[in-house]
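batch job 7 of whatever, protein = SH3 domain-containing protein
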Amino acid sequence: MTFPRLIAGLTMLLAVGASHAFDFKTVGAAPVILYDAPSTKGGRLFVVPRGAPLEVVLAYGEWLKVRDVTGELAWTEAKGLTSKRNVITRTPNLKIRATPEDSAAPVFIAEKGVLLEVTEAAAGGWLKVRHRDGLVGYVKNSEVWGI
């Protein structure tokens, strides 16, 4: 392989990798079952509660290979997921702030594993989120999983 071909190949790989965005879906109104294969005849692994975010890794017909917050990979039926965006807090005692700034006053504190609804993306890597109790505030993208 010549040097120009090698450079061209590496450039293509980098472009493809850089253009890959994570595709997250949210479990819909009913919990979904995760299977070890893309079929209801496959082994049942987990039940994921409604509202939980899942990262879509691969689509195969009406089935999706997904990754959960723990990093586990499994299959689920696409019909059980929605495009609504929810996230899960990564750290304990996470301060959800009044404005998208590190110095802003906390509106509330969320423990690790709390589910939050994303209402909008804010500038500078922040998200506006809502807790199921109705509290609204801002959190950094890096402090949550599912975005």
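notes: Residues 125 and 141 are 6 Å apart (CA to CA).
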